[in-house]
Write a structure and sequence with these properties.
alpha/beta; 7-stranded parallel beta sheet; TAT_signal; Peripla_BP_I; 2 domains; Rossmann fold; elongated; 6-stranded mixed beta sheet
Length: about 350
């Protein structure tokens, strides 16, 4: 899993980065530069902003929207591009077929777009077309599913699967730390995906901090409502008593909640994953087992458009001292519960 620097919010990516800005300010205060020197230096560093600049054509190759989160990814990219008068977005038809997506990206390369944003159906399988774009002088923003080599992209931006599990585990751990012999269960995603293994590893590592808690069962589903319902029903039948459930994905969580309701169970707390609107609404109502969800923000696609625009205009990120955008950015997996759900409600996906 690549090392990345977490940044907590989409706005912080390009226009805020308050903590970094504060650090840069403090450094400046202790230097020997005059105020005039510092002002001049600041003026020479190009930073992305909302003001119209050089026109940029961005080619976007996203996924087939067969899942709520993936549909949100495409919507975020399109909506973000629409906010910029200097951005033209060339969108391919979403595909989960690697050969088809490669062909779509090659078409964008032949059109000589200024920058490419790619969420590959399979990072390994699409690495060569990423390399082809980079060799053609087209910077690639690799979104979420990472290519096999950093040579295939200029910047990677995506979520933190290990961090999802880690933060879910710490949230549950803190809720149960006063309970002796606490028992937790896990409803994972597709076990053949590396991201599922990372989410489980983060969760297990977090639970090591709470010796009173034992994970007593784990069931893998496949990110659909139907599988969530079926696998959750199996967990409930096998485990007559437990204190908390971590479900990797809010889409399959819809099915899991159906199974929980059908079983008449309300004796545990549930933490979801990703950030679906339905999960936010249930958390806000606070009349069921779902008490929190850990974000895997689809806003990363909007951030990818911001980054692509900055690349096309030869600009850096506001709030950072560097002239260039970073090579990689990992978004933070915030925990959303009833205390902060209103803040995130507008980002929930259907």
């Amino acid at each position: 899993m690549p090392e990345h620097t977490p940044l907590a919010s989409r706005r912080g990516l390009l226009f805020g980065a308050a903590a970094v800005s504060a650090g840069a300010f403090l450094t400046g205060c202790t230097s020997n530069e005059s105020d005039d020197d510092k002002e001049a230096a600041a003026d020479t560093r190009p930073a992305a902003d909302d003001k119209p600049g050089k026109p940029v054509t961005i080619g976007y190759a996203g996924p087939l929207a067969d899942h709520g989160w993936l549909n949100a990814i495409n919507d975020q990219a399109k909506n973000r591009a629409g906010k910029y008068s200097d951005v033209t977005l060339e969108v391919t038809e979403g595909s989960n077929d690697t050969a088809q997506q490669i062909g779509q990206i090659e078409t964008l390369i032949n059109k000589k777009v200024d920058v490419l944003v790619v969420l590959p159906a399979d990072g390994k399988a699409l690495t060569q077309v990423g390399l082809k774009a980079m060799r053609a002088g087209i910077p690639v923003v690799n979104l979420d599913r990472v290519f096999n080599t950093p040579q295939a992209y200029r910047c990677w931006v995506g979520g933190d699967n290990y961090g999802m599990g880690l933060n879910a585990g710490h949230y549950i751990g803190e809720k149960l730390k006063g309970k002796a012999d606490a028992r937790v269960v896990e409803l994972a995603g597709l076990d053949n995906l590396e991201l599922t293994k990372q989410r489980t590893q983060g969760f297990d590592d977090a639970l090591k901090n709470y010796p009173n808690i034992k994970k007593v069962a784990r069931q893998a589903a496949d990110f659909t409502v139907e599988s969530g319902q079926a696998k959750m029903a199996q967990l409930l039948q096998a485990q007559s008593k437990f204190d908390a459930l971590w479900n990797h994905d809010d889409d399959q969580g819809v099915g899991a909640l159906r199974a929980i309701e059908q079983a008449g169970r309300d004796d545990f707390l549930m933490v979801g994953g990703a950030g679906a609107l339905s999960a936010f609404q249930a958390i806000k109502q606070d009349n069921g087992v779902l008490k929190a969800t850990v974000l895997y923000p689809p806003t990363m696609a909007a951030s990818a458009i911001d980054l692509a625009r900055a690349l096309g205009q030869g600009k850096g990120i506001g709030g950072l001292a560097e002239y260039e955008i970073p090579a990689s950015i990992t978004l933070y997996s915030a925990v959303v519960d009833k205390d902060n759900v209103d803040q995130y409600m507008s980002t929930g996906f259907k």
